[in-house]
Amino acid sequence: MEELSPRRKRLALLTLCITMFMSMVDNVIVNNALPRIGQDLDAGISGLQWVVEGYSLVYAALVLTGGALGDRYGRTRVFRLGLGLFTVGSAVAALAGSIGVLVGARMLQGVGAALLTPGSLTLLRHVFTDERERAKAIGTWSGVSALGLSVGPVLGGPMVEHLGWASVFWINVPIGVAGLLLAACVLPDIAARPRRIDLAGLALSAAGLALMVYALIEGPSRGWTDTRVLGCGAAAAVLLVAFLLLELRLAEPMLELRLFRDGPLVGAMLSGFMVSFGMFGASFFLPLMMQGVLGWSPAAAGYAGLPMTAMLVIAAPLAGRLTAVYGPRLPLVFGLALCAVGLGGLSLYGDNAHYPAYVWTLFAMGLGMGMTFTPVSIGVMQRVSPAQMGMASATINTLRELGGVLGIAVLGAVLTNRMSDSLTSALRGLGVAPKDLGSIADAPAGASYGSDGTVPALPGPVQAAVDGAFLDGIHVAVLSGAGALAATAVLVAVLLGRARPLAPAGSSGRPQPEELTEARSARA
Fold first, then answer.
1. Dihedral (C-alpha) 87, 89, 91, 97: value to the nearest 10 degrees?
2. Which helix (H) or strand (E) holds 468?
3. CA–CA separation, 494 vs 263, rounded Å?
4. pLDDT at position 81, please?
């Protein structure tokens, strides 16, 4: 492929950054619009949950397929198709007149994101051929991606208040159109790689992941022993095991499982998974605590996330430079440890907490997240051959999305169980009838969905019991997440013990032994 001019490289990076920013913002900006959506479209909490999770379900189920299609039909072509579908889905969502249409539009957005995100990292590798130049570009790209996740709530609150809930979807349309125009002009055409599409693997992985995500979404509300939840979970396990067995037998699999023999590669991917696990869980708890217990407005709760945003902006390029000099181990371990400290620090504060007292936890979590995004991407790129880059990129995104879904589901279940136990004991002491427990326990979450954003009226002692039980549940949940992140930091330090730093600029650029081994094992 011909060498691109510096100007075209910058425009290509801009194109990939704005499209990834758009897809990342869309993951979280919708949360602040849910109260208005529920009011305007007459939707209950279950319907609103699917507005959020419909996107994640489809994305997680199809992102591996998106990587395979990019190999078969060309990375740039599939990237443009995904961006187009995402833009159309955003417009349909903004115009939706019913909750069913809105959920369908969110799923279409998920399809588009699953097609465009695996190709984004691959295109970066083709545009920036110099190792150090590529590391800086990935640092910028990763920082913008991380910024999208943190700035979404900050943007969403004021937009919903002043422009209505449809604005959180309309904002994607001009960005998507601009991205499509830029992509047509500046992105290089990467030749398709002749290969069979693994249709059986596609069906098994998509169905298995979809059923697993469905079970995780419905488990907290239906109960983990519900027949449908158990059935979907069991079916997901069977389908995913069948998928793994199939991939081991194929000459050209969708997911090259032999890559997971490489310790540093596993460490990098595990880092991405666990950061999403902990931080998506935090993004679920913080708005509930700020709005449901501390009585903040949605916009104020969004603005409270600015310290995380600031630290992400600072940390992402810094992590790129540290990775270029020392390799991914140092920033990954440091970032995971900071996330653990920040998340665990939330357990120190109760319903009388003042923002200046716990703002340090937001700084720690923002810095920790920012330190991990770039080295995860670079760490994976160092360990795979160019032919496997698309599959590896799709795997990163799958693990990140599943980490977020699991974080909300698992830590949410911890919160719910602890809260239920604490609240039952407290309400028994107040003489509240057992039959009223369910409606009272919904009060903290219900506060986020009220038409006026206020906490439902409860007698003073009962409200105090609810807040106390809810905070007790949050404390146990964040400590559980912090413990998991701390254990991951130790494990990643061991797995990445032999990871090498990037080659200096001007070096021979010869393939490393790991890449040669992987290239020989890929029977493409």
1. -170
2. helix 460-495
3. 9
4. 92
Paired tokens of 255: 């997911």
Q: Which amino acid is at 195?
A: R
Going by pLDDT thresholds of 50, 70 and 90, the confidence category of residue 502 is very low
Q: What is the dihedral of CA 414, 418, 424, 429, to 10 degrees?
A: -170
C-alpha span between 128 and 324 (Å, rounded) = 15
Which residue from 67, 453, 493, 58 is spatially nearest to 288, judged by alpha carbons? Answer: 453
418 alpha carbon, distance to own chain's centre: 26
**Cβ–Cβ < 8 Å for 461, 430:** yes
Question: Could you count the other beta carbons within 10 Å of the beta carbon of residue 73?
Answer: 14
Predicted confidence at residue 220, as pLDDT, reads 64
Alpha carbons 492 and 479: distance in angstroms, whole number: 20
**pLDDT at site 332:** 92
pLDDT of residue 444: 44
- If you count DSSP H runs as helices and E runs as strands, how many of each does the chain have, helices first? 20, 0
SS (H, E, C) 105-169: HHHHHHHHHHHHHHHHHHHHHHHCCCHHHHHHHHHHHHHHHHHHHHHHHHHHHHHHHHHCCCHHH
Per-residue tokens: 257:
């499982």
Q: Return the pLDDT at 390.
A: 64
Backbone φ, ψ for residue 225 (5° rounding): -100, 5
H, E, C per residue of 265-287: HHHHHHHHHHHHHHHHHHHHHHH
Distance (Å, whole) CA 44 – CA 260 = 42
**One-letter amino acid identity for 18?**
I
The DSSP code for 388 is G
Tell me, what's the pLDDT at 505? 37
DSSP string, 218-274: HHHHH-TT-HHHHHHHHHHHHHHHHHHHHHHH-SS-SS-GGGGG-HHHHHHHHHHHH
Contact at 8 Å (CB) between 223 and 229? Answer: yes
CB 414 within 8 A of CB 474: no
* Structure token digits, residue 396: 């990163």
What tokens does 93 get?
Answer: 């969502």
Return d(Cα 298, Cα 288) in angstroms, integer.
10
Which pair of structure tokens corresponds to residue 75? 């990375």
